[in-house]
Amino acid sequence: MLSGAVAAWNSLPVAQRRMIVTLLVAIGLANIAQPFPELAPLQHGPTVLLALAAPWILRRWPLSSRSAGCIWLFLLVHTFGARWIYSYVPYDDWARALSGHDISSLFGLQRNGYDRLVHFAFGALLTAPLAEIARRRGGLRQVWSLAFAFAAIGLGSALYEIFEWLLTVIAAGETADYYNGQQGDVWDPQKDMAAAQIGSTIALIALLRRRSGNPIGEAPCPEGPEQ
């Protein structure tokens, strides 16, 4: 088993190995003086398992380092917010310390909005990797692979909201409201899914314009050959 793990690890490009290591380090740092220790396993456990399984997954289903980098960046954004279970990311405190003003007042936010950012990042950052998978594994042409990616983001968002609800009911117990991050918003799941689709739409526009030879700058981790 150890030899298999070493072989899987050695088969990865150096850039992807560094991503896995830095993600595990980030998870460790996020749990130093953890403010919500009772919920930390629910927040970080799946990410740890994914990082540990990544060498086998990427060996069996390779991705370009650009697409792997998109997934890595999304997981870092998630790990950062998971330290404060999303609902309590203290960005207003940081903004006041730097400028004397807080972000919530500036934008009229009634709740902590970091979870919306993560759902947006889900769509914006995972559209390109999903399109690459559809091309490599499904043999789809580029336009259809992008359509698949957009639909997959919607399906993934819906399944996550159902999974979060079930996990909260089963595992979170008395801390369900804190883990779920709804913050009193009865439309929270729908808004989260909308944020993901907006992110995916922006990624699609960037990728399509880049494909047409009329680039608008770097797309959200656009696809390309292995680096």
Give an overview of the whole structure:
This protein is mostly helical. 72% of the residues lie in helices and 0% in strands. It is globular. The protein starts with a helix and ends in a 16-residue tail after the last helix. The relative contact order is 0.13. Residues 214-227 have low confidence and may be disordered.
What's a concise summary of this model?
This protein has helices at 2-10, 14-30, 40-60, 65-82, 91-99, 103-107, 114-138, 142-172, 176-180, 188-211. With 227 residues, the chain is mainly alpha-helical.
Proportion of helical residues: over 70%
Question: Whole-number radius of gyration?
Answer: 19 Å
Beta-strand content bin: under 5%
Mean pLDDT: 87
Low-confidence stretches: 214-227
Q: Please, what is the oligomeric state?
A: single chain
Secondary structure category: mainly alpha
Q: List the total number of helices.
A: 10
Order of helices and strands: HHHHHHHHHH
Major sheet, described briefly?
none
Say how many strands there are: 0
Overall morphology: globular
Distance between the termini: 29 Å
List the helices and strands and how they pair.
Layout: H1 2-10, H2 14-30, H3 40-60, H4 65-82, H5 91-99, H6 103-107, H7 114-138, H8 142-172, H9 176-180, H10 188-211
Write a concise keyword list for the protein shown above.
mainly alpha, 227 residues
